[in-house]
Amino acid sequence: MGTEEIKLAGLKVTLPRTRILQILETNKTRHMSAEDVYRVLLDDDASSIALATVYRVLTQFETAGLVIRHNFEGGQAVFELDNGEHHDHMVCLKSGKIVEFHDEIIEQRQREIAKEHGFELADHSLILYGEFKGK
Amino acid sequence: MGTEEIKLAGLKVTLPRTRILQILETNKTRHMSAEDVYRVLLDDDASSIALATVYRVLTQFETAGLVIRHNFEGGQAVFELDNGEHHDHMVCLKSGKIVEFHDEIIEQRQREIAKEHGFELADHSLILYGEFKGK
DNA sequence: ATCAATGCAAAAACTTTGCACTGAT
DNA sequence: ATCAGTGCAAAGTTTTTGCATTGAT
Fold first, then answer.
1. Could you tell me if A75 and A102 lie in one domain?
2. Are B101 and B87 in contact (CB under 8 A)?
3. What is the CATH classification number for the domain harbouring A42?
4. CATH number of the structural domain spanning residue A117
5. Whose CB is within 7 A of strand D?
6. Which of A71, A94, B120, B132 is the most exposed place for a label (fewest CB within 10 A)?
7. Which nucleotides of C are covered by protein (CB under 7 A)?
8. Do residue A46 and residue A104 come from a single domain?
9. Ranges under pLDDT 70 in chain A
């Protein structure tokens, strides 16, 4: 389970970290804001973990490469577990539903474009905004 | 000049709006945060236009389709004039330099992917982060 | 004259930080 | 015992809003 990952990240294995990682692993929606995580903590636990701690832990997890932070529209950053498989996102402007996708053609073109501009690509963010229409 | 566009947007032609549009049109860097615009106003003008007004006007311009708001990394939103030609961005993490690009292959793939998911595409955001290397 | 637009200050929303206490090793 | 981790409250940042005044038509 997650305890290992925390240790490998050079962080002490504490209750807040274990719980937050657990929540990220088990929550039905993969993408959660700090507030989302905090709310689950409030509901599930009798324990009291501060919102500030949630932010701190998520930031540490991000630094450690355990989670990825996204800045979608709407102020709040959202976090998701980094499963190692890069992907982009489709965000429904109506429901907030998020679907992940990966397209090698797009990835390839990005690398080419960067190269053409003498740009050393470190990362990228591709988000499609729109609306899921019932099939 | 810009006066027409403001009128067409259904907004009264006022000094703050004229000046802000003018700044967006003439500033050497196309992408400016509200603070950037505000700073130019402070320097150039004896007039005093409030930061709140800059935010209000930029938001109105966005609604009117005159400018586009981007949420790049780093907290502050940046605005650019909408010249009608859609493009994406390369952002240098070192210098902050921004280069625009457009790639029809990527655009096309996005449309296809959206279609495959029953997703009605309204908009998208593609940002490449990295570093420009001397040629 | 009318009603939108603005300045100012206050508030809101999100996130970070200082500090004294707690807890993992 | 030590030093990282945490809770709490306070502060920081960016953006928005309420309200009285100003200004465009």
1. no
2. yes
3. 1.10.10.10
4. 3.30.1490.190
5. A 11-12, 14-17, 47-50, 52-53, 56-57; B 12-15, 33-35, 51-52, 55-56, 59, 75-77
6. A94
7. 4-10, 13-18, 23-25
8. no
9. 1, 134-135
What does each C-alpha distance from A49 to A21, A56, A120 come to in angstroms? 13, 11, 40
Same domain, A70 and A98: no
pTM: 0.90
Q: For A121, name the nearest residue in chain B, comparing CA atoms only.
A: B130
Domain residues for the domain of A94 are 88-130
Number of domains in chain B: 2
pLDDT tens for chain B, residues 1 to 135: 578 899 999 999 999 999 999 999 999 999 999 999 999 999 887 778 999 999 999 999 999 999 999 998 888 999 999 999 999 999 998 888 999 999 999 999 999 999 999 999 999 999 999 999 965
Q: Are B92 and B72 in contact (CB under 8 A)?
A: no
How is residue B32 written in tokens?
Answer: 């400016």
Query: Tokens 């965000």 sit at which residue?
Result: A91
CB contact under 8 A, B124 and A128: yes
